[in-house]
Amino acid sequence: MALYAMGDFHLSFQVDKSMDIFGSVWKHHEKKIQKKVNRLVKPEDTLVITGDHSWGRKLEECRLDLEFISNLPGRKILLRGNHDMFWDAKKTARLNEQFNSDLYFLQDNFYTYEDYALVGTKGYTFEGPFYYDAWGNLMGWDEEKEEHAKKLVDREMVRLRKSFEMAREAGYHKFIMFLHYPPTNILEKESPFTAIALEYGCERVVYSHCHGSSRFADSIRGEYQGINYDLVSGDYLDFKPVKLLP
Ligand SMILES: [Fe+2]
Ligand SMILES: [Fe+2]
């Protein structure tokens, strides 16, 4: 039995949105996902998929994408990404009913893996625009957008704390925290997300959303303040899931 993670499948079996323009790593990426996940993940394993599942805007436009995911081996736990328009955060319980025991949607709830609680939410990070001078020195950023981002971070923090608290009330003390957005942006060393991971004594923080080699170093990777941070964007991993626990 093992716990794996990977995110950002960006599937489009029903809508016209090829990912090929983003570089060779995305060429037939759905075939890579199928091949590598099937080779690695066993039926008794768990795979957490950290958002940006489908380009469809409504559930009807995502049917084949979600069917593709449900046909992968193991228990699949899905997190919300910024592109997952089919998923209304307030209606997660309904999705869990519809896809019962086929797919599990992580939002305002938690799942377990052995003695670990798997908690999470989409998260949010202010991604600019940042302004630089001709020498590449940071001169400032869009402060209005930053203000708006703070509100979104606050809302996501409420959701994340709820997930932690539900797990704690159920008796769990070991946590793995999943986010879609990176926990910090390119200017930050810490954020409300790194703080809550410390507060609850998380062992790992797992996130995706960063695409392309110029963005892979946007946030924390590796050990920081005793917590292990893993970037699991599909293109970063060349679509081979990361094993988090044996
Ligand atoms: Fe993405
Ligand atoms: Fe994303």
Number of helices: 5
Low-confidence stretches: none
Bound molecules: fe (ii) ion
Arrangement of strands in the largest sheet: 5-6-9-10-12-11
Structural class: alpha/beta
- Structure summary, number of beta strands: 13
The end-to-end span amounts to 7 Å
Content of β-strand: 15-25%
Largest sheet: 6 strands, mixed
Q: Give the SSE order as H and E letters.
A: EHEHEHEEEEEHEHEEEE
What's the overall geometry?
A: globular
Please give the radius of gyration in angstroms: 18 Å
The percentage helix is 25-40%
The pLDDT mean sits at 97
Structure overview:
- By secondary structure, the protein is an alpha/beta fold.
- 25% of the residues lie in helices and 22% in strands.
- It contains 5 helices and 13 strands.
- It has helices at residues 29-40, 63-70, 92-98, 143-169, 192-199; strands at residues 3-6, 46-49, 75-79, 104-106, 111-113, 116-121, 130-132, 138-141, 174-179, 204-207, 222-224, 227-231, 242-245.
- The protein binds fe (ii) ion (FE2) (2 copies).
- One fe (ii) ion (FE2) binds next to loops.
Q: What order do the helices and strands come in, and which of them pair?
A:
Blueprint: E1 3-6, H1 29-40, E2 46-49, H2 63-70, E3 75-79, H3 92-98, E4 104-106, E5 111-113, E6 116-121, E7 130-132, E8 138-141, H4 143-169, E9 174-179, H5 192-199, E10 204-207, E11 222-224, E12 227-231, E13 242-245
Parallel strand pairs: 1-2, 2-3, 3-4, 6-9, 9-10, 10-12
Antiparallel strand pairs: 1-13, 5-6, 7-8, 11-12
The structure holds fe (ii) ion (2 copies).
